[in-house]
Specification:
185 residues; alpha+beta; Immunoglobulin-like; 2 domains; five-stranded antiparallel β-sheet; four-stranded antiparallel β-sheet; 1 helix; 11 strands; 24% helix
């Protein structure tokens, strides 16, 4: 009796060979590297855009502040540091706004002094609209302030337009003032 031949032995794995080339990859590492690189580039571009926008905005704000400071003149007639002296009802001009004569100091229903009938006409050379806020200080011959009234346009006065100002006082102005100082804020 003859025996059947032995079966073929199962294939054995190749022994480790450190000098051999690595097995071919499926490419997933390369795909991940490209995705990470793409995200990094997008993030860098966004950051650069934000930084550029901030620099441009900051420069514009700085220029506007510099222009405003250059235009500020503490000696301008009618400014806070150089108020105009006017008589009651006299017309005057501050910063291109002409205030018409005929305004009056009167008592309001709360027994406080206020100014009525004050109109401002915008005749600025630059043609700009202007918001108006005025302080009227009532002063004695000795230089003592005996009351104050504030007036505002409430909105901008367009070039060429005339607007009645709203005024309010919180004092009953003592008699004896001999001059009125007006300044714009």
């Amino acid at each position: 009796m003859t025996q059947p031949p032995y079966p073929e032995p199962p294939p054995q794995p190749h022994p480790h060979q450190p000098w051999a080339a690595p097995p071919p990859s499926s490419g997933s590492g390369r795909t991940i590297a490209l995705a990470v690189g793409g995200v990094a580039i997008v993030v860098l571009l966004l950051c650069a855009g934000v930084i550029t926008a901030l620099v441009v905005i900051g420069r514009d704000i700085g220029e506007n502040i510099s222009d405003a400071l250059a235009d500020w003149d503490p000696e301008r007639p009618g400014g806070r540091d150089n108020p105009l002296t006017v008589g009651e009802g006299e017309g005057f001009e501050i910063d291109g706004i002409e205030y018409q004569p005929g305004w009056r100091l009167e008592l309001n229903p709360r027994d406080q002094h206020t100014i009525t009938g004050l109109e401002g006409h915008n005749d600025r050379e630059d043609g700009a609209s202007e918001y108006v806020f005025l302080d009227f200080a009532f002063v004695t011959a000795a230089g003592v302030e005996v009351g104050e009234v504030t007036c505002s346009s409430g909105a901008t006065i367009n070039h060429g337009a005339t607007k009645l100002l709203r005024c309010s006082g919180y004092d009953r102005i003592a008699p004896g003032h001999d001059r009125i100082r007006v300044s714009a804020r």
